[in-house]
Amino acid sequence: MDHFELRDGELYAENVPLSVIAEQVGTPVYVYSRATLTRHAQVFREALSALDSVRLAFAVKSNPNLAVLKLLAKEGYGADVVSAGEMHRALAAGMPGADIVFSGVGKTAREMREALDAGLGQFNLESEEEGAELAAIAAAQGKVATATLRVNPDVDARTHAKISTGKSDNKFGVAYDRAAEIYARLSALPGLNMRGLAVHIGSQITDLDPSRLAFGKMGELMRGIRGQGLSVTHMDLGGGLGVPYKVGDVLPGPAEYGKMVAETTRGWDATIMFEPGRVITGNSGVLLTQVIRVKAGAANPFVVVDAAMNDLARPAMYDAWHDFASVRPSGERMIANIVGPICESSDTFAMGRDIDAVAAGDLAVFRTAGAYGATMANTYNSRALVPEVMVDGDKWAVVAQRIEPATILAAERVPEWLA
Ligand SMILES: *Cc1c(COP(=O)(O)O)cnc(C)c1O
Q1: Could you read off the pLDDT of 200-221 as tens digits, one per residue?
Q2: Domain ranges (residues) in the chain
Q3: Which of 257, 275, 332, 415 could crosslink 357 through cysteines, CB 3.0-4.6 Å?
């Protein structure tokens, strides 16, 4: 459910016609709906209300925009960050350091120091080596770092290979069979307060069975570790719940996920932590674009839009589907390929797709672009960095300005010896 709907034949974001945003900000531009973001944040929380003790850490990497983080901070969310850069965003949005979790397989010593300085709440350790390094850094500062150990449960999340993270040959976490001994050794280090386990098996998960299996294995591991006399008070179950990208997609929602978690974690006697990203932000945003022209093709015409793979990378990277819709649909349909202007064949959003008929100058949207959209944008082909807008009822604001190619060029230098 979102708040991008047709009114009198024109697509609106809440109470704002998308054509108004296109006219004033230009295209391409991401448009987020505050009402949708808030609703998703609340629905996810409510779905977990059967659990005794819950902590929510929004996965910043899915949409790190400062206004989005501010809104989620107001909804009581902390943050799951994977770099110092993301941590500073979460802090800038007003999230307390204590509510921030630091994940990621390559935390540098410098990032660890910055995080300790910020009073970060929890490090999710990805290896014994990383734990030893963090312990030493913390001890040298006279501090104790709170941490969990990320475990690779060797479970296939049955999602796209590039967003699967919980199989034994993925780079994430420590091997399940070695986790208990590593946990014990890390627990003995001064400078570390080991308080639990973490797991995250992948993204865009559309089948709950792999998660059920992984969480069950984590419960067993937790009991084994407690049996050694060690403390486990926090269990971080990661993120990964999928969202519908196509009209008619049926997949488990937050309520079913919450029910599965409640069943799987019954009797755990631990604080259960979650790191949702896409399920909060995915359907909360669209990428608004203008058709440059329609070019004849061999089998189907090419609809060339002014958005490209540098603005929305998911189709090129993950073969992802984004519904395409005209902002003022005529009711006519066409079969077309939708492509961007970048000089790569992978700059293709759809092939042979049945879409609203569009012509040069028309506005259109790619839906479900609020997660892993703007955050992956780059300036390939010396294009601008795409701007972002947030709508709230009748109000709207630019929440990230377009960064023009001239600004990027201004940061470059020709060395004297080349001048
Ligand atoms: C990416 C990621 C998430 C969020 O995944 P979603 O599919 O967006 O919910 C959560 N935790 C970790 C460790 C991640 O890497």
Answers
A1: 999 999 999 999 999 999 999 9
A2: 4-32+282-410, 34-280
A3: 332
Nearest to 269 by CA among 48, 57, 49, 53: 53
Q: Which atom of ligand 1 is nearest to the CA of 150?
A: 13
Cα 5 to Cα 367: distance, rounded to the nearest angstrom: 11
Q: Report the distance separating Cα 189 and Cα 194, nearest Å.
A: 9
Does ligand 1 come within 6 angstroms of the Cβ of 80?
yes
Q: What is the pLDDT of residue 1?
A: 65
Which among 310, 306, 322, 286 has a CA at the least distance from the CA of 377? Answer: 310
pLDDT digits (tens, 9 = 90+) for 54-70: 999 999 999 999 999 99
Range scoring the smallest mean pLDDT among 108-117, 150-159, 267-276:
150-159
pLDDT tops 70 at residue 285: yes
For 79, the enclosing helix (H) or strand (E) is: strand 78-81
CATH number attached to the domain at 4-32+282-410: 2.40.37.10
C-alpha to C-alpha distances, 112 to 129, 145, 171, nearest whole angstrom: 13, 9, 20
The alpha carbon of 372 and the centre of ligand 1 are apart by a number of angstroms equal to 11
240 annotated ligand-binding residue: yes
What's the pTM value of the predicted model, to 2 decimals?
0.97
Rg of the chain, C-alpha, whole Å: 23
Element (H, E) at 291: strand 285-295
Distance (Å) from CA 21 to ligand 1 centroid: 30
Handedness of CA 178, 184, 185, 190 (dihedral sign): positive
CATH topology of domain 34-280: TIM Barrel (3.20.20)
Angstrom distance (rounded) from CA 401 to CA 403: 6
